[in-house]
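Build the 3D complex.
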Amino acid sequence: MAFSPRFAPVARSLRNCQRPVKYVQRIRPVAQIRWTGSTSATSEPFQPSDEGGTKGQSYSAKEIKFTSEAYPHIKKDPKFTQLSTEHVQWFKDLLGSESAVIDSLSNNNAADDIEPYNADWMRKFRGHTKLVVKPESTEQVSKMLKYCNDNMLAVVPQGGNTGLVGGSVPVFDEIVINLSRMNNIRSFDEVSGILVADAGVILEVADNFLAEKNHIFPLDLGAKGSCQIGGNVATNAGGLRLLRYGSMHANVLGIEAVMPDGTVMDDLSKLRKNNTGYDLKQLFIGGEGTIGIITGISILCPQRSPAVNVAYFGLESYNKVQQAFIEAKKQLSEILSAFELMDGKTQKYLAQVKGRKLPIEGEHPFYCLLETSGSNTDHDSEKLQTYLEHVMGEGIVEDGVVGQDATQNADLWSCREGITEILGHWGGVYKYDLSIPIGEMYDLVNETRDKLTKAGLVGDDDSHPVVDVVGYGHVGDANLHLNIPTRRFDKAVERELEPFVYEWVAKRNGSISAEHGLGITKKPYIGYSKSDTMVKLMKQIKELYDPVSIVLLDVGTPI
Ligand code: 2HG
Ligand code: ZN
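Done.
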């Protein structure tokens, strides 16, 4: 790949002012990296061992420590009923198909089949469920929840199981209600761009369907091949297009959800304007399934842009990253669709772990990926060219490439989307998904690295638990992913990280979970981002809609 012919001469001549001519290499187009289901993920997060010590090799889902042991302070509420074979039979009678029920209570042979539903894709959390049920309709979900509510059976809703905070797998023996068989596109209106679909439709399937209609789903994620749109809405997933289209709160027009007592909340509105009282659907968006299970959504989908350009460039400082972003907003304004940050270490490790060459030569402290999407190829290319000439001419950007076709664009994107996967390479990762004012965002990465280094925890060999401290994320949304790849779980590392990271973020009025939700891991720290009053109001909502608390995950209650 090279700068596309339109940009290459200018870019080269600008670079030549500063250093000798160097050729811009071609990069190999590779398939875009996708997150996969729990059993096939190659990432290997930390594994707390019995001694609080370490494990670093490959583990199958079955070898993951149970969440109930890793987090012993989370206690099962004795009010819940023990699952019996009679209960299981009730579900079999309801679903009428053996393939819709995985039952390891009455069938010992199902023990292996059930494990992928008990564990998350990072192999970090593992529950003890003995029953997975896969409803096909909202009516079945309704009957199930009513039955569970009446019989005091705890449940956990599960979509694509691609989350990062342990919210989509059981902790104890909650029944997994897996939405994967609810996968129908219900309707699409080409005039308004409104899609109505079941919650279990895979994001990429929805986007491919929309592509045929010249539209796009307003959310894009590295996990698009596995995650489901219902889960995306339930977690208010942010992703790579938020800069342009906004969050799920802005795009979802209606929700169909089943409340814990089985009541169906049918609010599949297709209206953009509807000022008739409380906007209750917003409680389900980002509610992580705590007050009901989303079974269908209606969502506004933008027109697909015929002209998409992707540029990948290296910069010498975080200050320059900010300057490049300011210029991108000024010069590319309405066509700017993504502005992503990758620090130099993430790209170095990506090249190392994947055994691939990076799109540009040399080592740069920071890299950015910029995408434009618009309706006019010539107009967009001209704008991007002017932008690139400017940022290179002003010395804001050191070097860069522009994809020349969809395959090259996908390859450039893989340098950003592939980071999550490769960071698990050494054994485990401590992950923080933070909202921080843009100007200070990268300071946290430096300070965390200094802190861990001073404590003697970072190094190149096995005697040090921490491999490195890296930062990447969605600059345009002021969302940093602070990741600490480790060789093993170590209490000393944790003591350095927490509450340091949370206090640092709270001091800047940031958020301890920007786009991944609270799940099990971040829930105890909600107080760093929400006041006591807000937590109290959340608890009241939970108690109102799920008084029995059969959906165990509970956003508002610190554990
Ligand atoms: C991303 O932006 C995802 O790539 C995952 O939100 C971030 O793995 C992470 O920390
Ligand atoms: Zn992200």
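Confidence is low (pLDDT under 50) at residues 1-62, 555-559.
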